[in-house]
Every structure is written in C-alpha cells, then in structure tokens.
Automatic annotation (TrEMBL), chain A:
GO molecular function (one): NEDD8 activating enzyme activity
Keyword NAD among record annotations: no
DNA repair as UniProt keyword: no
UniProt-listed InterPro entries: APP-BP1 (IPR030667), ThiF/MoeB/HesA (IPR045886), ThiF_NAD_FAD-bd (IPR000594), Ubiquitin-activating_enz (IPR035985)
Protein name: NEDD8-activating enzyme E1 regulatory subunit
Stored Gene3D superfamilies: NAD(P)-binding Rossmann-like Domain (3.40.50.720)
PANTHER family associated with the record: NEDD8-ACTIVATING ENZYME E1 REGULATORY SUBUNIT, UBIQUITIN-ACTIVATING ENZYME E1
Known role: Regulatory subunit of the dimeric UBA3-ULA1 E1 enzyme.
UniProtKB/TrEMBL annotation, chain B:
PANTHER family the UniProt entry points to: NEDD8-ACTIVATING ENZYME E1 CATALYTIC SUBUNIT (PTHR10953:SF6), UBIQUITIN-ACTIVATING ENZYME E1 (PTHR10953)
Coiled coil regions in record: none
Protein name: NEDD8-activating enzyme E1 catalytic subunit
GO molecular function, one term: NEDD8 activating enzyme activity
Active-site residues, record numbering mapped to chain: 204
Keywords: ATP-binding, Ligase, Nucleotide-binding, Ubl conjugation pathway
Signal peptide per UniProt: none
Protein family membership: Belongs to the ubiquitin-activating E1 family. UBA3 subfamily.
Pfam families (alphabetical): E2_bind, ThiF
Domain of life: Eukaryota
Top-tier EC class: ligase
C-alpha cells in the first residue's frame, strides 16, 4: 500500500530495509506496546485464559484479550445458541442457532487475531469442574488466568477453591441488566513494573558524594549570563541549599534533609537572587521544584510493607500473610511458594538487606532516571551520567545481596537474570504487592472485609448480587424470570420477586452485622426488573474492565483493582470495594 | 414480531416500570412507546476507529435500527489491535464503509449508512436529521468543531436543532465519557482546559541544546526534513520517511551522547501517538452507548454529565457534573481575553492563542475593526499580512481592543480582547 517516493530515492538511506519496523507485530501492536512493552506482550502471548461461560459477557471480555494477542483461550460451556443469543452476543451469527455457543464464539473471536489460538470445550461447567479434582492436567491447572462469566454461586465456590489452591488468578463476573459485578481472586499478586506515578528521586537535599563533588566543580560566579541560563535546576537547588545552610550554620545533608515548608520561601529568595534575570527559565524551574526536593527521603508505604513482610525476612515462612482470618481457615491458607524460590521475594529480601546496609543508609537503589531540565546539552548529559553511575553502583551492591541469598538457598547465580535485577532496581520505588481475599469462604460465610464494605457505595449492589445468587439456589431461577411453567403477568412477578429479594438482602446485612442499613427499594426493583439478563452495553463495558484487569494480572504490569468492581449503568457509576 | 426486534433483556427495560425515572410513562407525549422511540431514533456515529467500531456494534445490539457513521480515515495495520470490524485485507480501505458493511452483514435488520467524509463537509440539513450524536474521536480538534457546530444548531433552529452529544475519549488505561446537552449543560469547549495542549519543544532547544532523544527527533522532522525535502510532505505512516528521521536523529544524537532513539519513539513523536487498547475503548464506548440507549428509551436517568475511568493503579472512577463555563467560547459569552505586553509581537500573540489552554487554536486568522492583522490563507493575503507578525501589538491596535479570531478548530469566529500589561 505504501506509495513509492516521488523524489530521488537515493536521498533515502540505502539500508532502510534493515531499519524497517522490526516486524509486522511491532506495527500491529504499536499502540499497546507503548503501554506494556515487549515484556508485557511476551507475557500476554504466553498466557492461557480459561473462560467458563459463553454469554456476551464472556465473548466481550475475550474480544479485548484476543485483539492484543493473548496466546491461548479456552471457552467452556454446553449452552446452544438460541434466537436471543443472536440478538445479544455479537460473536454468534444468525445461522448459528442450535449450534454449541462455545464453538460459535471461539470461531467468531479467532477471526480477530490469527495469533490467538482458541479452543471450545462443549461440556457443562459443572461437569468440567467436577472432573478437575481428580486430574492434575485439567483445564484449570493449565490456565494462567481463569474467568467465570455468569456462573451460579455453587460453581463459583468450587472454582474459587480450586484456583485458590493452585494460586491461579480468577475473575468472577456477572451481569444483571444495568448492573454488573467483577471480582478478582488470587492469593498474592506482585508487581515490579507498576508504572505508578512517583515523585522524582534526585536526592538534592542530601546529595550523594559524586553529585556533591560535581556541583562543587561548577562555579556559578565564573559563568556568563548565557551559560548561567543553561545550568540544570538540580545544580541550582543544591547551590541554594548550600547557601541557605551556610547562612544558618547548618550542614548540608545532615540538617537539610527535611526543610519545613515555611522556610522553603527563604530558599526561593536565594534562588531568585542567584538568577541573572527574574524570568530565566532554569531558575524558574529550580524555584518550582524546591518543594519536591527539600522534603525528607521516604520509601512508599507499599514498598515498606513488602520489605517488612515475613516473606522478605531472614527466616521466611511459607505463608506471607499475617491475616488472622485467613490463617484460621485451613482451606484459605496461601498456597504459593511464598518465600523460598519466588524471584519477587528473593529480590525483596535483597532489597531489605540493601536498605538496611550502611551503604544505602535507609534508601532504595536509585533508578538513575532524571527529568528534563532546561540546560545546555553538555551540562545535562554530565548530570545524567552522575545519576546513572550512582544507579549502577547501587545495582552492583544490590546484586551482591541477591547473589548471597541465592547461594544460601542453594540456587544458581543465574536463577535471577541481570535483566530482572535491572528491572527490579529501576522500579524499586514503585513495587506493589496485592493480597486478595478468597471467594469460596465468602460464599459460604461472610465477606472478609465487612468493616470496609459497610462504608462503600458498592455495598447495596454487592448485597443484591449475593441475594440474587441465594434466590437462584432456592428457586433455580433468578428474580424476575418466569419459570416457564405457569403463565404470570411479568409486572406482578417482578414485584413479588423484588419483595423476596429485599428480604434476603436485608437478612444478609443483619447477619453480617450491618443492621443499620437496608437495601434501597429502587435498587431492588432495578435488579428484579433485569431478570438477570445481560444488556449488551453493560456486558461490553464489563468486558472492558475484565480485560484490563486480566491484562494487568497476566503481564504483572500496572496495578489490578483489589478486589471488586461494581458497574452501575443506571446511575453511570463505577464503584470499587474490598469484600 | 417484537421479540425478533431486540433482545429479551432489552424488552424488559422497555416494558417494565423504571424505578429510577420520575414520572415514568409507558408512552410519551407523542404517544410513542420506548420500543418505537428506539426503532425510530436516527443516530450519527462520528468516528469509525477504536471507539467507533465498539459504538456501532453496541448500538446495533441495543435495538437501534437507523445508524449513520462518518469517518474520513482509511484503515492502517496499527488499527487492528482494537478496531475489531477490520481485517488485514481491509488495510487502506475507508473505515466508515468497512465498519458499516460489517455491521450490516452481522445484523441485517439494522440500517447502517457510511459517509467517507470529513465532518466539515456535511451540510446543516444532514446534522439536523439526527436524534442524537455519538462521538468516538481521538482528535481534540474534530471534537471541538462538532461540539461548536451542534451547539450552534440550537441557536439557529431552536428545539429542532437540539441534538444531544455523547462524547468519549481514551488514552491508555484511562478514558472519559460525557453527555452534552447543547446550551443546557457544559459543552466540550467548557472543559477544554482539562486537555493539556500537546507537548511542544522550543525551537531553540531543538536547534541548540538537545538533551533528550525527542529533541533530536524534532530536529530531524521539524528542521532537517523541510530543508532536505522542501517539496515533500512528511508522512508519519511512511516507513521510509520515519527511517530517514531515525537515521538523522541518531546522527544528531551521537556526538552529544544522547541515547534512546528508536523507530517507535520517532514515529510516536512525529505523529503524537497516544497509546490505545481494545479494553479501554470497550469501557468508554459502552458507557457512551448506554447513555444513548437511556436518553432514547427513558429506561433510566441519563448521565449528569461526566464519567472518568482509570485502570492504571487499581480502578478509579468518578461521575460528576462538569460546570458550564460562563466565558465559554462556544456556549458562554464567547469573550476570550489575553493580557500581554504591548511590546509583544503579533507572532507572540498568535503563539499565545495556540498554547494557552483556554484557546488551543491551530492556525488563527486575526482581524481588528475590519483591518486584517494576519491571514493564514489564501497565499496572497498571507504574504500581504506577514510583515505584521514582527510588529509590536501597540503599533497595530490599542489596549483592550477586541480582535475577531477565526480558526479551523471552530466553525464560527470568536472575540478576543487583548489588554496590554
């Protein structure tokens, strides 16, 4: 399709062929590679998603995973396509009526991306789950992520237990008209490349020796106004701090690590006095960046929790959790290999040793990245190099710890690769660890975080989804759905079922100790009105949320939501809560 | 018959009492049922890209029967990771036509009309014929234009010209959807300052003090390309062009020890590429079409008036009413104001109108009291007014003069008062 160049093509480099976008894949996936890079893409392509259910909720979720190139997907369902499916599920066709729905959506989805391999298992989910326990090579254990779309609670319970034991992430979703619920379950999820926005880490208020000697090597008094206008703001700030410390009989690095906000104004005056002109850009940048660079060095609490975790301690226990509720229930114990061989935890242990060492003085390895600063090329690149060198030294120090740890554990030195160490050090400030609550215990008893849930806007929706599940267990039909035997007026049926749904919901609230709340009539009526049918828009919206969460879980990049998301298409609101 | 028209789940919401809608009636003032309103609604989808493909599918699966889609773009290979109505064999074909054909094939009961056109090419009658408009555009410029045009319809045609706009936008794991009721609620322009102007690099940095790989890429594309190929327009989708830039930028960077120039970064800088994924498009497009469905059927209250979604770190979402801006250039008093030194040049004023978050104009043409200050085109007028660019503002007009400004981003002119500081 490319137009040939109309002018002398010799002006274009003769070896452009060599430099063409590496592959078709780089072009095809360009817009997503800018988010999760090659590493995330490889993880996605090596992943196998196993989906129970084949409704629009399932096919819309899968669409968003097949398009970016998930490696394999399996759809498990024994439903056959009826005339209603054709109207609701985009990936079945008019002439599919009567065929197995799992097969139809796999065929429709496979068309979207030849790189994603899909398989349909035309068996009842209950059947497949029943045979799981007897076999180690079953579908669930081969999956990197499992999804349950619209399964009844009894099956969610069994699947939840199975996945929890395997340590496999599970996303449970169901939709009822304008409402949907999306719940993620996995014992533990660690993220190195969280892409979290962090404050810059330039360590200006306590400069490391190489930075200090670099700053001392620059004499601002000898520079002409043009040169002065090209000094990077990091250097201006350190100079200003030195002046401020000297004027107040303080020592740079010792007394300047956490300057009260009220005194930063003094520093601003110093910066202003140093500037050759009041609007000199680099001095304006220095002023603007004073606040961010004059506060005490802090390790994010998420990272403190990780290095303070039992799994990163000198005697790691098998379970990383200290949650008494979870420990109490034997079936809920964390089955992952917590401390011993997990690379994340081996490196977390090394990270703890690093920060505790005399070398690091309580700091994390420096990432080495610096923001752009108005400066001439030479000054900026020189500064960049100072930070890069310090980051390399930190990394070397960190590597010593990890290699000692590997030795002690009887693991080979290359068990953790240099690339993995690089990524870990670079992202040390933004590590994340998520622990979710199990769903099988929740369905048999109470949600694990009632205190939190009680204050959530998602509470009533959650209660009504649970109530609908209980209604189904009792009547083998969802609220508002005619049983097909006796003819009833739909309005009357919905009204009657709403009354029962409300009773169940308020009963749940009482049994969970949230007796001061009741489910609102309007919301109950909205659930009863839905007949637990999927609206395409809500299935599609939820499919987007589910796929985002699945991608984050599979790539270990960005941060999944912990642990439930409620879509309310009636109020156009999306709530997140921990259950 | 009705059971064939739309899904059972939808039917329930068309027939059963809506608990959250005040004064719910099963037939409206004109005696129409929600089912009739849904079947008869004529919807215009603007954009057949990532959001557009989703919007078309959702409308068709929600019971809408008369859908038009307009897009001036053709299909590129990099669209296929999310624009699921297109296949590899479709690369190069018009998006609107391929998308419409796909939906017609999948859902023969739905009429889908494609327009392979620019939105600015369509007539007022065309826009007046719709019940509502759903926008899935990635360009701020196009969204501004359609917003201003549709807001203008209310003024010229009263209630007949009242067309709700449901607008969506995404970037990476983030996105937003909003409902604009022209003249009643905040319009796109009212919230313009929420979109930061595109990152630009000062020419002096590019020319004299490059520090980042981006600076070297800009040097190659902004300075070197027009110098070496004065007659040829740079095409960000032409791999030969991008490769040439990669090479030039790499050579530029080497002596400075600047690293990190890649094909992907180069194309990203040149085309100002925004990351886009299928899942975010699904969320935002469905939020938009869900509003379209609610507006037409009154099955639930509609969005008031903005929802934000971010999946970067956990899930964060917020629904809130964006306030109308009384000074809005489209639906407010349309009085823009700029304070600048009288010693500034006209060129500096034009730069201000381009970079100021409240204006973000592209190529403004300026007149004051019927005097032409600067014209972007035609060529003759541009040449005639070009000398004014270097003149001081105080030489051209008095402080607190009101300038008439026209720009491609807006269908009508605006008034900007310039005060000398």
């Amino acid at each position: 399709m490319r137009r040939p160049l109309s002018v002398d093509s010799s002006a274009i480099s003769p070896d452009t062929k060599r430099m063409r976008p590496e592959t078709d894949k780089a072009q095809l996936y360009d817009r997503q590679l800018r988010l999760w890079h090659e590493s995330g893409q490889t993880a996605l392509e090596n992943a196998h998603v196993c989906v129970f259910g084949s409704s629009a909720l399932a096919s819309e979720s899968l669409k968003n995973l097949v398009l970016p190139g998930i490696g394999r997907f399996t759809v498990i369902d024994d439903a056959t396509v009826d005339d209603q499916d054709v109207l609701a599920n985009f990936f079945v066709q008019h002439d599919d009526a009567g065929k197995p729905r799992a097969e139809c959506i796999v065929a429709g989805l496979a068309e979207l991306n030849p790189d994603a391999r899909g398989v349909a298992v035309v068996r009842a989910p209950a059947d497949v789950l029943g045979s799981c326990e007897s076999s180690d090579t079953d579908l669930v254990s081969s999956a990197s992520l499992v999804m349950a779309c619209g399964l009844p609670d009894a099956l969610v319970h069994d699947l939840g237990l199975r996945c929890w034991q395997l340590g496999t992430p599970l996303i449970v979703a169901s939709a009822a008209g304008f409402m949907a619920s999306i719940r993620t379950v996995v014992p533990e999820h660690a993220v190195v490349e969280s892409h979290a926005d962090m404050k810059q880490d330039l360590r200006l208020s306590a400069p490391f020796p190489a930075l200090l000697s670099h700053v001392d090597g620059i004499d601002l008094n000898t520079l002409d106004p043009t040169e002065l206008g090209h000094v990077p703001y990091a250097i201006i700030i350190v100079k200003a701090l030195q002046k401020w410390a000297a004027a107040n009989n303080l020592t740079l690095g010792k007394d300047t690590i956490d300057i009260p906000y009220s005194r930063i104004r003094e520093m601003r005056d110093i910066v202003r006095a140093m500037a050759p002109a009041s609007d000199e850009e680099n001095f304006v940048e220095a002023s603007k960046n004073l606040n961010a660079n004059c506060t005490a060095y802090e390790i994010a609490f998420e990272v403190l929790q990780i290095i303070g975790d039992a799994a990163a301690s000198e005697t790691p226990t098998n379970s990383g959790s200290d949650d008494a509720d979870l420990q109490a229930s034997p079936s809920a114990s964390i089955p992952t290999d917590g401390g011993s061989k997990d690379k994340f935890w081996l490196m977390a242990k090394a990270l703890r040793r690093f920060t505790e060492s005399d070398y690091a003085e309580g700091k994390l390895p420096l990432s080495g990245a610096i923001p752009d600063m108005k400066a001439d090329t030479k000054s900026y690149i020189a500064l960049q190099r100072i930070y890069k060198q310090k980051a390399d030294e930190d990394k070397a120090e960190f590597s010593k710890h990890i290699h000692e740890i590997l030795d002690a554990a009887g693991l080979p030195q290359d068990y953790v690769s240099q690339a993995e160490i690089d990524t870990y050090c670079k992202n040390a400030r933004r590590l994340r660890l998520l622990r979710f609550t199990p769903i099988h215990t929740e369905l048999k008893g109470k949600p694990s975080n009632i205190d939190e849930l009680a204050f959530s806007e998602a509470l009533h929706h959650y209660v009504l989804f649970r109530s609908s599940g209980i209604f189904f267990e009792k009547h083998r039909r969802y609220p508002g759905v005619p049983d097909g035997v006796k003819h009833v007026d739909l309005d009357d049926l919905v009204a009657a079922d709403a009354v029962e749904l409300e009773t169940i919901g308020n009963g749940l609230l009482v049994s969970w100790g949230i007796a001061d709340q009741t489910v609102p009539d309007g919301l109950v009526a909205e659930f009863a009105r839905s007949g637990h049918d999927e609206l395409h828009n809500i299935a599609s919206l939820s499919g987007g949320v589910i796929a985002q969460e699945a991608i984050k879980l599979v790539t270990h990049q960005y941060v999944p939501a912990n642990n439930m998301c409620i879509v309310d298409g009636a109020a156009t609101k999306i709530h997140v809560a921990r259950v | 018959m009705p059971s064939k028209v739309c899904h059972r789940g939808i039917q329930r919401f068309l027939q059963l009492k809506a608990p959250h809608v005040e004064n719910f009636e099963l037939v409206n003032d004109e005696g129409k049922t929600p089912q009739q309103l849904l079947s008869e609604a004529k919807v215009l989808v603007i954009g057949a890209g990532g959001l557009g493909c989703e919007i078309l599918k959702n409308l068709a699966m929600s019971g809408f029967k008369d859908i038009h889609v307009i897009d001036m773009d053709t299909i590129d290979i990099s669209n296929l990771n999310r624009q699921f109505l297109f296949r590899k064999a479709d690369v190069g074909k018009p998006k609107a036509e391929v998308a419409a054909e796909f939906i017609r094939r999948r859902s023969p009961e739905v009429s889908v009309t494609a327009h392979f056109k620019r939105i600015q090419e369509m007539s007022e009658e065309f826009y007046l014929s719709f019940t509502l408009i759903v926008c899935g555009l990635d360009s701020i410029e196009a969204r501004r234009w359609i917003n201003a045009f549709v807001c203008g319809l209310v003024e010229t045609h009263g209630f007949e010209g009242f067309k709700p706009i449901v607008d969506g936008g995404t970037e990476g794991f983030k996105g937003n959807a909003r409902l604009i009721l022209p003249t009643h609620s905040a319009c796109f322009e009212c919230g313009l300052s929420m979109f930061p102007p595109k990152t630009t690099y000062p020419i002096c940095t590019i020319a004299n003090t490059p520090r980042l790989p981006e600076h070297c890429i800009e040097w190659a594309s902004v300075l070197e390309w027009p110098r070496v190929f004065p007659e040829k327009k740079l095409d960000g989708d032409d791999p030969d062009h991008i490769n040439w830039l990669v090479e030039q930028a790499t050579q530029r960077a080497a002596p400075f020890n600047i690293t990190g120039i890649t094909y992907s970064l180069t194309q990203g800088v040149v085309k100002n590429i925004i990351p886009a994924i299928a899942s975010t498009n699904a969320i935002i497009a469905a939020a938009c079409t869900n509003e379209a469905f609610k507006i037409v059927t009154s099955s639930n209250p509609f969005l008031d008036n903005y929802i934000f979604y971010s999946g970067d770190e956990g899930i964060h979402s917020l629904t809130f009413p964006l306030e109308k801006n009384p000074d809005c250039l489209v639906c407010g008093n349309r009085q823009g104001s700029v304070t600048m030194s009288g010693d500034s040049t006209l060129e500096e004023l034009i730069d201000e109108l381009k970079t100021n978050a409240a204006f973000q104009l592209k190529a403004p043409t300026l007149t004051v009291d019927s005097t032409n200050l600067y014209f972007q085109n035609p060529k003759e007028l541009e040449e005639l007014t070009r000398p004014n660019l270097e003149k001081k503002l105080s030489e051209l007009f008095d402080s607190e003069s009101t300038l008439t400004v026209t720009d491609t981003t807006l269908p009508t002119s605006l008034q900007v008062t310039v005060t000398f500081s």
